[in-house]
Write a structure and sequence with these properties.
The protein has five helices and four strands. It is an alpha+beta fold and 116 residues long. Strand 3 and strand 4 form a beta hairpin. The model has no long low-confidence stretch (mean pLDDT 94).
């Protein structure tokens, strides 16, 4: 999991994203609910250029930031890396000016996943 996290952070960096938050979901659920889960990490990533563009067009879009990238262990021992689809999420705002930016963010996150 640590190696995947490092690769994810580096892949995000190459696409202009920084990691703003890191949530260890496994540890959080154990602490709060005393429930056992497989390792599951949520990285809150932000590309300041894209964030500036969308917040300028639609300030309430900030409720959908940052973009989450998750790394979770599967029961068989493998891992899954996934990212939010920003085009789908930001589509809820119904501002057509955001659509091309959201598509660029989706493309960047797709490249991130491919690099991991």
């Amino acid at each position: 999991m640590a190696a995947l996290k490092e690769r994810a952070v580096e892949a995000l960096r190459t696409e202009g994203f920084g990691v703003l938050t890191e949530i260890d979901l496994q540890a959080t659920l154990k602490k709060k609910l005393d429930k056992d889960h497989l390792p599951h990490l949520i990285l809150g990533a932000c590309n300041p250029e894209f964030a500036d563009q969308v917040v300028t067009l639609e300030p309430l879009i900030s409720t959908m930031l940052p973009c989450n990238v998750t790394i979770r262990q599967l029961p068989g021992g493998g891992h899954v890396v996934a990212a939010i689809d920003p085009a789908a999420a930001m589509g809820a705002v119904e501002n057509p000016a955001i659509e091309p930016i959201a598509a660029q963010v989706r493309d960047a996150l797709t490249r991130v996943i491919e690099k991991i």
